[in-house]
Amino acid sequence: MQHSVSDVSVHHRLGRPVLSLRLPAGSSHEHALGLDDMKYVVHLLHSALTLPQQQHVKHTELMIRQEQLKEQLEPLETVRIKMVQEAETKASVLGWAGVAYLSLQGGFLAYLTW
């Protein structure tokens, strides 16, 4: 008869992973862990020990990539700012030109009326 581990959990205490095993009722410790269970426990331990390091490495890689993208986007951002300033200037000029044209048209209509 083969026994298995019913619950395996890894907790972190003081920055270190702690493995806790819960065996089914009536099972002895000698027969509790089969080969598959041992592989699973080793996998959990490995994951618990390497996960913070993997997260740190991935975070560092992402920060480097973010800086590279910012450097690549910097020339495009300056072009965008320049284009926005030109568009605002042209819109302002066209707005005032429209007001001037309407004023001339109103003055001409007044001249013809009176």
Report on this model:
This protein has 114 residues and is of the alpha+beta class. It has a domain at 7-83. Helix content is 73%, strand content 12%. The protein has helices spanning 29-32, 35-113; strands at residues 7-13, 16-22. The longest helix is centred in the middle third of the chain and has 79 residues, at 35-113. It starts with 6 loop residues before the first strand and ends with a helix. The model is unreliable at 1-5 (pLDDT under 50). It comes from Collichthys lucidus.
- Low-confidence stretches are 1-5
Helix tally equals 2
SSE class? alpha+beta
Helix coverage percent of residues?
A: over 70%
Q: Name the beta content range.
A: 5-15%
Shape: rod-shaped
Tell me about the largest β-sheet.
Answer: 2 strands, antiparallel
Mean pLDDT score:
81
- The helix/strand series, from N terminus to C terminus, equals EEHH
Number of strands: 2
Specify Rg, calculated over alpha carbons.
37 Å
Strands ordered across the widest β-sheet: 1-2
Roughly how many Å apart are the termini? 115 Å
